[in-house]
## 1
Amino acid sequence: MRPRPLYSRVAVRLTATACAAALTLATMLVATALPGGSPPVGAAAAAPRCTTDELVVWLDTRGNGAAGSTYYDLEFTNLSTHACSISGYPGVSALNFSGQQLGNAAGHDAEHPATLITLSSGAAHEGLDGFATGNTATVVLQITDTGNYPPSTCASVAAAGLRVYPPDQTASKIVPFPFGACSRRGPLFLHVEAVQRGIVSD
């Protein structure tokens, strides 16, 4: 317990009833001052959201093929000097060699619920060597074989890479990676899951 402040040399005595009333009033004042479920004073504040500039976005190209699609791990590594948080779905689209979008942006796969993930500072753990410290999160990216779609609706072409917007960010990163993409809007040949903690693939 904190020591009671000494306001004067005169001892102030409160009855048990007065103490209870004071405690009740203090509780009401705290509840009024913290609307909308705000954390109480002294509670740990959530890490700020990871910005695009603080993240290295890269693709583990060792894909796993299944049922006409290949699944890749799209990684988000925090290389800033402080912890940051990430949650939800990134924006992902295919790009041609001129940097223009091909077809539709990736759809969302609700395989995993969106949860708030805190990434530790990679700068404090020698950057990319800091995987074990929790500075990387993963999104599973599904790329569907364009041969699954009629040529008239897909018009398959070679993509040069991916444009990736980290969750809740308006700035993007380019990830070079050649693959088959639909050049026409319509088929959802890309899908992403919500961000997961750590490196997902073996």
Note: Helices lie at 16-33, 151-154.
## 2
Amino acid sequence: MARLLSKSMHITAHALHDRPAALFQPVPPADRKAMLERLPPTAAHAAELASGKWKLLVSSTSWTADEDFSLLLSALVGYCARATADKSRPLPYILAVITGKGPLKAQYVSQIAALSQAGRLSHASVVTAWLSAEEYAGLLGVADLGVSLHMSSSGVDLPMKVVDMFGAGLPVVGWGEYEAWPELVREGENGRGFGSKEELERMLVELFGGDGEELKVLKRGALEEGKKRWDEEWDRVAGKEVFHIVQ
């Protein structure tokens, strides 16, 4: 954005990035099972999620055409097919929780039901939920992986949902085919970017399969990123500018 303002309008600007609200915090490992038992979308499966036998994937959306959730559904279908076909490489069951309200929700709920009925989500459950702010923050804090399907029309805006996920210490995979994405997500450090359903499917297999070391690396990176809050960002970028003006 700063580059575009400079090029098109000759305005000198400094990027003041969004930071998570205080509500979004990591959930200590010792408290994770209790939180899973309290949250409506996870309560029935808290034991499986807490043991690591299942993985918890979370995404949020306003259910509009700006986000193509068929990408995630297709990736989950591919993941399930791999889990069924290759028994030599066991893959954990995925509970995918999608939060939010919007005009296209009924359309996607219908798609999810059809895929489940056809047996194409044999190794995953996809549930939708509408949560309070506190419940949503708790869900991010206990999840294993966040997914962002935000597709920037301008190429220079960043999804606040990813900022909130980092605040909760949650690593992220997201649509990364726009210029500003690397400002927020550092590849292989706190998340990964994909540009197709096939890439997302492969990431789910890589992050949830095997020894889990890559997911642990991304988790550490997300926790570190989440430590950066509004006061620090303001002081780093805007505070010094205000000081210069006063002087």
Note: The chain is about 45% helix and 15% strand.
## 3
Amino acid sequence: MTCKELMTSEPAFCVPGDTAVIAATLMKNHNIGSVPVVLDPESRQVVGMITDRDIAMRVVAGKREYDNTYVRDVMSKDVVTCRADDDYDDVIEAMEEHQIRRVPVVDSERRLIGIVALADVVRKASKPDEVAEVVGEISKPSHAAQTNGKGRFAKTSLIVAGGVGAGVGLIYLLDPKWARGARKSVASAAGKVRDTIKGAAKGAAG
């Protein structure tokens, strides 16, 4: 499966000159947590990404005036992208490595042609375990994500808020049956970790 088969076409986007309020309104209206930033509506060349976390941390916590703060001032410029003909597994790996839930799909000139979201992964995944693994990796405590410079994915400064509970909650809204299976898989894995820790503690005490 390729990104073209997985992606959502005609995704919402904003431009650097839009205000933070416009970006936040787009997120609210489309029920999403991040929006690609394009140079202009005509070229649709991807130049950044703005997330709900960017707005919370750089606008609200920074005590900036919402109507006088522009997307260009708070967006992340290092963006993880994929091509339409990239393999499904590659975009999943990028989501896990960089802890992001949405990956813009671009053409050879970095023009936005679609987006692959966690919701798309949920719909196309063949097993609940696969969904649980992706959600778990994305929701791990963040650290600086680096590549070796040889891959197709760039270093990113995007950070996703929320943990496994929030991720599975999102999946539940999209597909309750998948979410129940995913939640069981995550709970099972967590239980094994707890048992391992308890066993190690008993061994140390003995």
Note: Residues 83 and 105 are 5 Å apart (CA to CA).
